[in-house]
Specification:
Elements: E1 35-40, E2 50-53, E3 58-61, E4 75-80, E5 83-88, E6 92-99, E7 104-110, E8 120-124, H1 126-130, E9 135-136, H2 143-150, E10 166-170, E11 173-178, E12 182-188, E13 194-200, E14 206-208, H3 219-222, E15 234-238, E16 251-254, E17 262-266, E18 269-272, E19 275-279, E20 283-289, E21 298-305, E22 311-318, E23 323-327, E24 333-340, E25 343-350, E26 356-361, E27 364-365, E28 368-369, H4 376-381
Antiparallel strand pairs: 1-2, 1-8, 2-3, 3-4, 4-5, 5-6, 6-7, 7-8, 9-10, 10-11, 11-12, 12-13, 13-14, 15-20, 16-17, 17-18, 18-19, 20-21, 21-22, 22-23, 24-25, 25-26, 27-28
């Protein structure tokens, strides 16, 4: 499975809205949402190219292509007199002087890399931006249509959207208006993946449509049409590399989500009644977490596998659907589970020296355990 890269995308809406219909202060008026200010008379490849404000007080400061740093979280903005301050997290912020009835921002101070004091940003309407690109007429793309398309994740491609009205930013990038409330950007990337990011125009909150159904990602939940039950991740047993592992004992567990079923752990397997769910040599630990967004826990375990040559791997077993997910790179890498701040963490270690190399949160993405860290191919070519 290819690594999944999350794109930081500034999505432009084609909907130009009536003047000052959103947020008004003494010095700044939002003409539309999102409202975008563009860098003037400077090189946008080297200096922060845009500042974006939203109706609900959210904001986004962009980074130029030369930067290896990205602001992944949405920021917030406040206005005091003739100054606008945008803050991303605890340390990233920028303050601008407002002029021209709110149509011009001049950078006064900044803690963000690739920004330049004195840089000027001018308001550019979304309609004006999109007018430079070809508009392809077709059917209107609606939220209901997107809900149906989202069911095809992760197999969505550019062709799924071709018949709907859109703007072609370039041959591999396409922008769609969705009911005047959302904007969808569909990108075909260099790795052959289709990335579909939808953004709420009023707040900038985004959702990767092609990852619908992955851990903590449900499109209907993003739309506010459903509430995903939250299951609190917890430990059942953990004896990973523990000399006190009770080899000849058993541990039993009942769960309200599966009434009438008794689950049993022994060092060699986990069972539900007479049914064996998975086996190990041994089963080092078992945690319970909802990775499939159904409100019910999956059994997440570290097991050893093999005789003579043994590897450590991750098993996620979904009792509801009788489906097993495996993360294993036998004779190349080992993996083990631990819990930090109520999150399940997977650590990848080198098979030969067993030294931890990299960790990531355990997730099911596009119906597979999310792969991270070094690949086998990278290990084979690295001395």
């Amino acid at each position: 499975m290819k690594k999944i890269y999350y794109l930081v995308i500034v999505i432009i809406t084609a909907c130009t809205l009536s003047s000052c219909s959103f947020k008004s202060t003494n010095s700044l008026c939002l003409h539309e949402t999102p409202q975008i200010y563009v860098l003037q008379d400077e090189e946008p490849f080297l200096i922060m190219p845009t500042v974006t404000l939203y109706e609900n007080g959210n904001a986004c400061l962009s980074q130029p292509l030369i930067s290896s740093f990205a602001l992944f979280t949405i920021g917030r903005y406040v206005i005091s007199g003739n100054e606008l301050t945008v803050t991303h997290g605890d340390y990233a912020n920028a303050t601008f002087v407002i002029s021209d009835n709110g149509d011009t921002l001049t950078l006064k101070s900044s803690t963000i890399g690739f920004s330049k004091i004195g840089s000027v940003y001018k308001y550019r309407s979304n309609a004006d931006y999109l007018s430079q690109y070809p508009k392809i007429e077709g059917e209107a793309l609606t939220v209901d249509i997107l809900r149906e398309l989202a069911k095809k994740a992760p197999n969505l491609t550019v062709s799924d959207f071709e018949k709907y009205t859109h703007f072609d930013i370039d041959p591999d990038s396409h922008v769609f208006d969705v009911d005047g409330e959302y904007t969808l950007k569909v990108i075909y990337d260099a790795d052959g993946n289709t990335n579909c990011m939808i953004e709420r125009n009023s707040s900038g909150e985004s959702f990767p449509l092609n990852l619908n159904g992955s851990t903590n990602l449900v499109f209907d939940s993003y739309l506010g049409l459903t509430v995903i039950s939250k299951y609190e991740t917890r430990k059942w047993i953990d004896y990973y590399k523990d000399e006190l592992l009770p080899w000849n004992e058993s541990k039993k567990l009942t769960l309200v989500e599966f009434p009438g079923v008794t689950f049993t752990w022994t060092s060699e397997k986990v069972t539900a009644g007479d049914k064996t769910l998975f086996m190990g040599m041994p089963v080092w630990n078992v945690y319970l977490a909802d990775l499939t967004n159904d409100g019910k826990p999956e059994f997440c375990a570290t097991i050893s596998f093999g005789s003579g040559i043994v590897d450590d791997r991750i098993i996620v077993y979904d009792y509801t659907t009788d489906k097993e997910y495996i993360l294993a790179d036998r004779m190349y890498y080992d993996y083990y589970l631990s819990m930090e701040d109520n999150r399940l963490i997977v650590t990848q270690t080198d098979y030969l020296d067993n030294e931890p190399s990299v960790s990531a949160q355990l997730k099911i993405i596009n119906k597979e355990i999310f792969r991270f860290g070094r690949t086998i191919e990278e290990k084979l070519v690295t001395p």
